[in-house]
Design a protein that fits this description.
F1FO ATP Synthase; about 0% strand; mainly alpha
Length: about 110
């Protein structure tokens, strides 16, 4: 678990660094609001992808451990695992859909001039 905690801290630090760089560029006037939203979508998708990968790896490890302990319950464990993996993956897909909406059909585009 120590490695997972360090990975989470690294992700948070990298996300904060990319946000601060993007904010610094926007306040300096060298980039626009839309560049900032693209950077935020990139950071959100990166965090969602890593989070889903960690969750799926953890779920798979627990399922294999459960099957190793009780081989007769492998069918039930596999069904629950596949359902859980689908729910975990749907979270990343939801983040992707929201990011695509923000990038290509930004609701603020009518308010903010290019």
């Amino acid at each position: 678990m120590k490695g997972v905690t360090e990975l989470k801290q690294t992700i948070v630090m990298l996300s904060a660094a990319s946000v601060s760089v993007a904010l610094g560029q926007v306040t300096a006037g060298s980039t626009s609001f839309f560049t900032l939203t693209d950077a935020m979508c990139l950071a959100a998708m990166a965090v969602a992808s890593v989070g889903c990968a960690l969750a799926q790896g953890h779920a798979l490890a627990r399922a294999v451990d459960g099957i190793a302990r009780q081989p007769e319950a492998a069918g039930k464990i596999q069904g629950v695992l596949l359902l859980g993996l689908g729910f975990i993956e749907s979270l990343a897909i939801y983040v992707l859909v929201i990011c695509l909406i923000i990038i290509f059909a930004n609701p603020a585009s009518s308010v903010i001039a290019h």
